[in-house]
Amino acid sequence: MMISLACKFGKVVLLAAVFVLLTGCNYGNQLAGRADAQEPISRSAWLAYWDLDAGEKDLQRMGEKLDKLSYFAAYFDADDHPVIPRELSERHRELAAKKGNYESYLTFVNDRQNPDGSSELKDLEVLRRLLADETARRKHIDEIIALTLRGGYDGIELDYERIWRDKEIARCFPKFTDELYEQARKNNLKVRIVLEPGTPFSTVAFTPGPEYIVMLYNLYGTHSGPGPKANKEFIQKTLTRMKSLPGKKSVALATGGGQWGDNGERRFLTENEAKDLAVQHGVTTRRDESSQCLVFAYNDQGAAYEVWYADGKTINYWIAIAKEQGVQNISLWRLGE
C-alpha cells in the first residue's frame, strides 16, 4: 500500500520511535523503567516484494539501526517448488552491493501459486505433501538451502502458518525444522522460525539453535470484530507461554490497524490510511488504555465504521511490556507500511 505525501512526516516519526527508542523506551509508566537498558537489543524488519520502493526508503532512513532484514518472501509454484519473486531477487542483489551491517534472510511462506495465476494463502495441502514423507522432506530442505545459497542470503527464515491446525503437519514440523537446522549449519546459514501466538509451545519439542520469533499481533483483525492487533493482556500471556521455547526469545510487532463496518466490510489499514480517514471525516481519536492503540468511529454512505490502529507510542508501549519480561529481540512487520 502506498503512503500519502501528507502523512510522510508521521511515518518518519514512527520509524524513529521504533528503531531509535528501542534501546530505552520512555513510555510514561514503570514498565520501561524496569527493563534492563544495558541489555543489547536486536532490531529486525521485513521487506515485502509488493512494496519494495517504500520499504527501501524506510530502510535507508534507519541507517545502521537495523540488525536483520528479512526478504519476504519465497512461495510455492504449482509444482510445489519454492520460488522467489523476480523483483525481490533483483532488489536483494541491488541492496547486497551496498549492504550495511545487517544480516539478510530469505523468508519462506506456505503460499502457493496455481497454474491459472490465482494463489492459495497459508496452504496446508502443500505442507502435507512435503513434510509428512521423509524423502519429500529432504528434497524440500535441499531446495530451501540451494535457493538461499544461490541468492547470497545469510540465513533462512521459515514462516509456515496454520500448521497446528493439522495433526499430521504438527507432528512432522519439529522433525522438519530439526533437519533443516542441521543442514543449514553445514552450509553456514542461520535459521529463524516465525511462530503464531497460538502455537502449543509447551507441548512441542522445538530444537535448540534457531531463533524463534513469535507474532504478537492479529489479536483482532479481519477474522473478528473491531479491536487492537495486540494489548497488554495478550502480550503478557503470550510471553509467559513462550518461556518454554529454547534460546533467546524474539517477538514480532505490527504497525497499522484495521477498519470494521457494520455492513460486514473488514480490512487492514496502514497508520497513514487510518490518519487520513480521521481527517477526511473530521473525527477525534481516543487512545485505548489496555493497548494504547488509537480508536475512532465515523459514518459513511449509511454504514458505521470503527477503526483501531497503532502509532509510535503504541509500539513503544508494546516493546516496554516485552522488555519487562526480558525479551530484547524485536522484529517489525513491515517496512513501507
Automatic annotation (TrEMBL):
Q: Mind telling me which InterPro entries this protein's record contains?
A: Chitinase_insertion_sf (IPR029070), GH (IPR017853), Glyco_hydro18_cat (IPR001223)
Pfam families, alphabetized? Glyco_hydro_18
Highest rank taxon of the organism: Bacteria
Q: Where is the GH18 domain?
A: 129-336
Q: What SUPFAM superfamilies does the entry give?
A: (Trans)glycosidases
Q: What name does UniProt use for this protein?
A: GH18 domain-containing protein
**Biological source species:** Sporomusa acidovorans (strain ATCC 49682 / DSM 3132 / Mol)
